[in-house]
Design goal:
about 600 residues; Heat Shock Protein 90; Ribosomal Protein S5, domain 2; formyl-coa transferase, domain 3; 4 domains; five-stranded mixed sheet; elongated; binds adenosine-5'-triphosphate; binds magnesium ion
Length: about 600
């Protein structure tokens, strides 16, 4: 046997109490998760999992990792014994999947467990049997390098828990889903999963993520690559492209990993929704496989008993980096081809026959509805069936981004999904992306006003103190001139912090922090000594973006009129400062042609 000093130690009571512990073992899939994570932490290159009867009869996890000595194996089964942390400080920067020293003893306390292990380089292994938490046998054995754990008759001593398990098939499905996720997180590790005699998963070690994706999900042609690093946060992976399989982004699994750990996270989920709703109205739950890497001391993993959630030290930074990463990836992805075949010819209804002219009737009705439904949950306005159909029936060709005609003003009818303004004039119907339109308007206004002098500024009642990375602080410091002209007052505040005393009057106070963080990111890497003008334009664009109304904001009719009027006055109004289209038009000609009126 190897006589290296034990890698595992017992945690002090004080430290053990600091750990977010709870129910570790809920169902067979949670056992599989803990055992496979242990194997990954042990540096395994191959992990083989076998289950019987949905894991209720047997779960076996075999790895070729570093193994344990006899002494370590005995310790591993004790509560709060771990090789992964030692001191309180270690909790602040965890780089392993496990850290509590809870999993093995918890599993052993509700099953018959067999642990067989041999450390690398040792000539013998050890086998320990535990029954409902009591060690019943320990002996030296011949064993291959690595560790095998068998969990037999899970919950044999907790019948109440056993009763709550789902059917064998349903538990197997959960295990298979979990294994898929773990396999995705570690492409370089080979994984197999067998249920009885069936092979459910077979993934040889892969070199690249896309290879592993293919092993797990087969063709993923609808995904686009995502990649961005800023201010110490990196995100990479794949996300559903806008065109998908012809009908907008494909719905699908959302696999999110933070430093190799699969998590659910509201900040990330929100940024995904945000990025997609800015780019398309089609999809709220797009398929994504995203990997975040950030220094372990900037993410707290000790917040959830099953380690399924994390807490970011700077959630808004993570949000912003992801939003941009997805924004860039989606901007490069081909636009969706809305399925708009020639509209089926309908018998002209009485309404169409009697219609006096384009839209005079509906406009009045819709404008009224828009004013009267301002309560939360209402949809702004319900377009009459004819408009819904019309919008659906428009072909891409008819919907090319169009410059907003100058001269005549458009009359807003209401909002579609609180994200697009539907407007009409004599020449047709327009769909306007409210966020990009307002952003465009504000950007033009800011640039215009700047020619006269600095922008109007508002002082914050309580100055905002923000922690930023050195690169971000430097970026803000370097572009003081531009920031001041826009109405920002940002100063070094000592340590990692900056103090924001004032922001431009047009930025909502509540958006101050995100705006500053976005500026820090946008100006990061902006070439030093480059033309001030360029930095100024960047500051103006970022400010306009954060001051503008957002997708999903309910707008009053007055605000819509304002945005449309201002839009009409701005030059180049068919694209936003980031180059996104502002307006789609369906021309009168096209409408008449489709209704066979010409
Ligand atoms: N497959 C394995 N190969 C090598 N060592 C292992 C293996 N599984 C467990 N160990 C050792 O046993 C210790 C206890 O494992 P256990 O899963 O109970 O706790 P942990 O992984 O440290 O923390 P957590 O409770 O968060 O999972 C680990 O710290 C590790 O040193
Ligand atoms: Mg563990």
């Amino acid at each position: 046997m190897s006589d290296r000093p034990s890698k595992i130690t017992r945690l002090s009571t004080e430290l053990a109490n600091q750990i977010a512990a709870g129910e570790v073992v809920e169902r067979p899939a949670s056992v599989v998760k803990e055992l496979v994570e242990n194997a990954i932490d042990a540096g395994a290159r191959r992990i083989a999992v076998a289950v019987e009867l949905g894991g209720k009869r047997l779960i076996r996890v075999e790895d070729d990792g570093e193994g344990m000595t006899a002494e370590e194996a005995a310790l591993a089964l004790e509560r709060h014994a771990t090789s992964k942390i030692r001191r309180l400080e270690d909790l602040a920067a965890i780089s392993t999947l496990g850290f509590r020293g809870e999993a093995l003893p918890s599993i052993a306390s509700v099953s018959n467990l067999l642990l067989r292990t041999r450390p690398r380089g040792a000539d013998r292994g050890v086998e320990i049997r535990v029954s409902a938490g009591v060690t019943t046998a320990t002996r030296e054995v011949g064993a291959s390098e690595g560790t095998t754990i068998e969990v037999i008759d899970l919950f044999c001593n907790v019948p109440a828990r056993r009763k709550f398990l789902k059917s064998d098939g349903a538990e197997t499905t959960q295990i298979s889903r979990l294994m898929t996720q773990l396999a995705l997180g570690y492409p370089e590790v080979g994984f197999t999963l067998a249920s009885g005699s069936r092979r459910l998963l077979q993934c040889p070690s892969a070199t690249e993520l896309d290879e592993r994706l293919f092993q797990l999900y087969k063709s993923r042609d609808h995904l686009v690559e995502v990649q961005k690093t800023a201010a110490g946060v990196s995100v990479r992976g794949f996300a559903a492209g806008l065109a998908g399989q012809g009908h907008g982004p494909v719905r699908g699994p959302q696999n999110l990993f933070v430093n190799g750990r699969a998590v659910k996270d509201r900040t990330i989920a929100h940024a995904i929704t945000h990025a997609y709703s800015a780019a398309t109205i089609k999809e709220r739950s797009p398929e994504v496989h995203l990997f975040f890497e950030l220094p372990p001391d900037r993410v707290d993993v000790n917040v959830h008993p099953a380690k399924a959630e994390v807490r970011f030290l700077e959630p808004s930074l993570v949000h912003e980096v992801l939003r941009r990463a997805l924004g860039d990836a989606l901007a490069d992805s081909p636009a969706p081809e809305v399925a708009l075949e020639a509209a089926p010819t309908r018998a002209p209804g009485p309404a169409a026959e009697a219609s006096p002219g384009p839209w005079t009737q509906p406009v009045a009705v819709l404008a009224d509805t828009a004013t009267s439904t301002d309560g939360p949950g209402s949809t702004g306005f319900a377009p009459p069936q004819s408009l819904t159909d019309l919008v659906r029936d428009m072909r891409p060709a008819a919907m090319a981004p169009a410059p907003v005609p100058t001269g005549r003003s458009m009359l807003p009818l209401g909002q579609f999904r609180d994200t697009f303004i539907i407007a009409v004039d004599d020449e047709g119907i327009a769909i306007i992306d409210q966020h990009v339109a307002h952003e465009r308007v504000l950007f033009e206004q800011v640039m215009e006003r700047l020619t006269a002098g600095p922008l109007e500024s508002q002082r914050l009642l309580t100055p905002l103190v923000l922690e930023l990375s050195p690169a971000e602080r430097q970026a803000l410091g370097q572009h003081q001139v531009a920031l001041t002209r826009l109405g920002f007052e940002v100063e070094e505040f000592g340590g990692d912090s900056v103090c924001v005393a004032a922001v431009p009057a047009l930025v909502p106070i509540a958006a101050s922090e995100v705006t500053i963080r976005a500026l820090a990111l946008d100006l990061d890497g902006f070439e030093e000594g480059g033309p001030v003008d360029q930095a100024l334009r960047q500051v103006a664009a970022t400010t306009a973006c954060h001051a503008a109304v957002k997708a999903h904001d309910r707008l009053t009719p007055e605000k819509m009129v304002y945005i449309l009027d201002e839009l009409r006055r701005t030059a180049h109004s068919s694209v936003c400062p980031h180059g996104r289209p502002v307006v789609l038009r369906l021309s009168r000609r096209e409408i008449e042609r489709r209704f066979e009126r010409i």
